[in-house]
Amino acid sequence: MSTMIKIQGLALSFSNEKVLKDIDMQIEEGEIFGLLGPSGAGKTTLVKIIGGILEADKGEVLINQQKVPSLSLMKSIGYMAQSDALYQELSAKENLEFLASIYGLGKKDRKKAILEALQMVDLTDHVNKIVQNFSGGMKRRLSLAGSLLHNPDLLILDEPTVGIDPMLRQSIWKDLQTLKEQGMTILVTTHVMDEAEKCDRLAMLRDGYVIACDRPEQLKKNQEVDTLEKAFLAYGGDES
Ligand SMILES: Nc1ncnc2c1ncn2[C@@H]1O[C@H](COP(=O)(O)OP(=O)(O)OP(=O)(O)O)[C@@H](O)[C@H]1O
C-alpha cells in the first residue's frame, strides 16, 4: 500500500478559535479511513481542507504528492457534504445529469456513469421521481451517487449516515466496502462508534487534535478496553 494523503502541521483558526491544532496524519491508498470525534471536534473542517474547499492557516496536505488545493486533483476527488446539495424540484436523474455535466462527462460516459451510480446506491427504480418526494435516506443515497459519477480515486464522506435508519446505514456501509474492493480510498467522518469499528484505520479527533490513530482493534488493545468509546475517553485522559 502506498500513501495517498499526507498531512503535516495543519492548523486553522476561525476568528480567535483554534479549530485544528497541528494535525499530522497519513492515509493509505485503498483503505477506509475514519475520522472519529464528538460534535465540534473539527472533523468537517479537516475534510474540507483535504477536499480543497477550505484553506489552512499553517501546514500542508499532499494527495499523491500533489499539494492541495489543486484543480487537477479535484477531478479525482468525490466529496459528499454533510447536508445534501440536491435540486428538490428535479428528478434523481436530472440531478445526476446536472452533476455529470459539471464533472465534464461526455454524453455516452454520462449515461453509463449515472446508471452505475444509481445501481450502486440501489435507486434505479426511482430515477424519474422528483427529489422532494424522496425520503431522507434516499436523498443521502442520491448524494452518494452524485459523488461517485466521475469515478474518483478518493471519496470523502462527511457523516454520510446521519439521520439514516440502521438498515440503510448497513446498506451504505456495504456500498463503501464494494467501492473499497474496487480500489477506492475512502475518508469518512463519524461520531458513531459502530461505524468507526468498520474502518480499516481511525484517527480520533478531539478539540482540534488527533489524540490517537490506528486500527480500531489496536486502539482498544493499547488502552486495554473493550469498546472504542472507552478507548476514546482513555486517550482523551478522561476517567471512564
Ligand atoms: N465557518 C466557520 N466560522 C466560524 N467557526 C466555524 C466555522 N466552521 C466551523 N466552525 C467552528 O469550528 C469548530 C469545529 O467545527 P466542525 O464543523 O469542523 O466540527 P465537527 O467535528 O465536524 O462537528 P459535527 O460533528 O457537529 O459536524 C466548531 O467549534 C465550529 O463552531
Automatic annotation (TrEMBL):
Pfam hit, one: ABC_tran
Highest taxon in the source lineage: Bacteria
Keyword match Transcription regulation: no
PROSITE patterns: ABC_TRANSPORTER_1, ABC_TRANSPORTER_2
Sequence ranges assigned to domain ABC transporter in this UniProt record: 5-232
Sorted UniProt keywords: ATP-binding, Nucleotide-binding
SMART domains according to UniProt: AAA (SM00382)
A GO molecular-function annotation: ATP hydrolysis activity
Protein name, as recorded: ABC-2 type transport system ATP-binding protein
Lineage: Bacteria, Bacillati, Bacillota, Bacilli, Bacillales
